[in-house]
Amino acid sequence: MEMKKKILIYLCALAGVLVACDDLTDQPQPNDGIQGGTLLETGTAEMYILSEGLFNLNNSTLARYSFSKGTWTPNWFYAMNRRDLGDTANDMDVYGSKLYVVVNVSSTVEVINLADGKVLQQISLVDENGASRQPRAIAFHEGKAYVCSFDGTVARIDTTTLQVDTLTRVGRNPEDLCVQDGKLYVSNSGGLDWEGIGVDRTVSVVDLKSFRETRKIEVGPNPGRILPGPDHTVYVATYGAQIEKGDYHLVCIDTQKDEVKVRYDEPVTEFAINDRLAYIYTFDYQRQEASIKVFDLGSGKVQRESFITDGTEMQRPYSISVNPYSGNVYLTEAYNYQVVGDVLCFSPQGKLLFRIQGVGINPNTVIFRDRDGAPVSGGGDAEPDSSMYAYADTVFEYVPAPSQYMNTSVTASGDGFTAAQVLAEANRMFRNPKQCLLSLGAWGGYITVGFRKAVKNVPDAYDLKVYGNAYYDMFGTWQDRPGGNAEPGIVWVAKDVNGNGIPDDPWYELAGSEFQNPNTIRDYQITYYRPAAGQDVRWTDNQGNEGTVPRNIYHTQASYYPEWMPDELTFRGTRLPDNAVNEPREDMPEHWVGYAYDYGYADNHPNNTDGCSLKLEWAVDQSGQPVQLDCIHFVRIYTAVNQVCGWVGETSTEIQAVENLNYGR
User: Fold this and answer.
1) Taking residues 66-74, what's their average pLDDT?
2) Residue 646 DSSP label
């Protein structure tokens, strides 16, 4: 995944995807995780917090806090629209009565009506061949929205019709944009294709009347964050040819002359401007230290070397914003970029006023409104009702196999976690299905969950629904199957025959469409071996094969092997045939499509289709004979495909929730 919202050096070009939908219910959450008592803000009615999630996991979230009502909804977008926001949301802003959210990997702009929280339009930003433009940031001026995309374009969107009316070209891989003095300024990073030709060094000036680039201003290598400043200026951060080397600078552009006015030798990764003060932070990758300063734009000097004055520590600041109604400064905390982060509010004097924990993974944007126009949830302010008991809410076992998500929040773990802590965290996550996404890792990794109430077997009806993060890719064509990122998992079920409330009863497989496939391997066994730090995870199987769970540039934690497990891990079960195919495109030599099997598996079809629903009448015993079950209490799911898909990595089933479709019958 990408490490930072504004760091582009290591990102690769990605194909556009369709956003998966589902129908889980959501209600306002209690203010657990909010530290500092009642949250008060001068002149502020509400704030929205955008979290980009983890790359390629479709788990971006949009949270909302109402200061006027004191209500907190951590996945507000989901609550209002009953579908996920998409993959890697990068930016958002309010214009008029609408909230616009830019979702990079999904290649969409979600336009939300703030009066009711519903999506008015999902604007797709793809080129004439259907390839993703990868939108990055948004700005507004006189009834138009401007969205820069990594393909070197800026799209102009009419905010009345909510349609793209034209495009213009700028520099390479534009990272950010802003409007000042009737002109659009676009920072061109060159961060995607920097190898061989180097990063870009320019800011494009676009005349808004003709909507054409009129000039390129050379500002320094890899320009990123760009904001309007006082007195006809624009400020841009340049990150250098390689961001880890700390070659950061803050550059001031004179917007009347459209030339560099001054280049400050001041390291800056991210910054926010309030009048004549800039709050800036940088992260030293060698020392693993963050620095947050107050910079006087008038004098061009640091006013305060340390913004935080009360000793509050931050591990990895991710974004910085200033509330225009109060002047308070908001910093988001990403920790190690792979766990759920926080938002911290400080006074201008650097004193912590409050902290909201668990806002989402990699929170990157915070915006504020002075009026409270949106409802808290689709159901009003009511408390959650007993229908939530339709979802499995107890995790008895969680044993993920090695994967690129290991030792992160997506595997309910982190540095130094014990097995007990992992199981406890998996339970906490599973009881909040709106924000839960658990990866089972490579082949064999599994989870066992239970229901409060038995799931009845209703003839000729679907009985279970397993929510994952599968989607369909518009480019898939293999064998007339729908394709996208299907990562099928086999589902087993059990009835609490002895009535002791634990899953120690006979298990039965739900025979899916590939049960009789001659390429399906039964009695498959695989063993994974703990590697040295930074090395691939080696495996061997009982078919005489060996291979690895390979490392990639998106997940840089020390080990892809579960730290809390023994040095060897062995899993047994059924291996389904490989389902992913590399379908190269002109702009992507590696374009992997995971094709969905017809029926009967977890994380195989999108949540808004019947393909993720299951029937208990499909149950078979160990010999493959049908079994008649009147009800079940437990479900076990494991990753059933052993395949590595190039830069995408290993196939790994992801689970969000398991629903009893016959609850109340």
Assistant:
1) 86
2) G
* Token reading at 578: 């490989």
Query: What CA–CA distances, in Å, run from 382 to 47, 67, 375, 378, 410?
Result: 21, 18, 12, 10, 30
Structure-block tokens of residue 176: 């950010």
- For residue 241, give the nearest of 208, 195, 295, 202 by alpha carbon: 195
Contact 272, 278 (CB under 8 A): yes
pLDDT score of 254 more than 70: yes
How far apart CA 618 and CA 636 sit, in angstroms, is: 15
* Cα separation values, 156 from 16, 125, 141, 149, 208, Å: 19, 11, 10, 11, 10
Distance CA 79, CA 379 (A): 9
Residue 22 reports pLDDT greater than 50: no
* Cβ(447)–Cβ(438) below 8 Å: yes
Bridge partners of 109, per DSSP, are 102, 123
Average pLDDT value over all residues in the chain: 87
659 CB burial (10 A radius; 0-12, 13-18, 19+)? buried
Q: Which two tokens stand for residue 561?
A: 């092997």
Confidence check: pLDDT of 386 > 70: no
Task: Give pLDDT, residue 283.
Answer: 79
Q: What is the DSSP string of 355-372?
A: EEEEEEESEEEEEEESS-
Sheet of 277-284, strands arranged across: 270-274, 277-284, 289-296, 301-304
The Cβ-side half-sphere exposure at 143, using a 13 Å CA radius, reads 5
Given a cut of 60, is residue 534 above it in pLDDT?
Answer: yes
Report the alpha-carbon distance of residue 452 to residue 470 in Å, rounded.
27
- When mean pLDDT is compared across 115-119, 164-168, 234-238, the lowest value belongs to 115-119
Residue-wise pLDDT for 589-640, tens only, equals 888 889 999 999 999 998 888 999 999 999 999 999 999 999 999 999 999 9
Distance CA 98, CA 113 (A): 5
